[in-house]
Write a structure and sequence with these properties.
Layout: H1 3-25, H2 30-57, H3 59-68
Helix pairs in contact: 2-3
Amino acid sequence: MSEKTVYWADAVLYPLAIIVCAALTLRSLSWFMWFAAGFVLFTFAEYWIHRSILHRWFYHGAHEQHHLHPEG
C-alpha cells in the first residue's frame, strides 16, 4: 500500500469511525452539532497556527523544506 493511500485512509477512516461510534452510543443529535462546531474551530485554529506561526517565524528551514518537498 502506498504512503498516499495510507494517508488518505487515515484521514477518512478515523473521523468516520468516531462519527459511527458516537452515533451508536449517543441518544440525541446535539452531539453532531458539537462535533461539527469543534471540527470547524479546530480546522481554523490549525490553519491560523500554520500561517501565522510557522510561516512567519519558522518558514526558512525545516518548514520551507516541508513545502518544497511535502512527500518526505
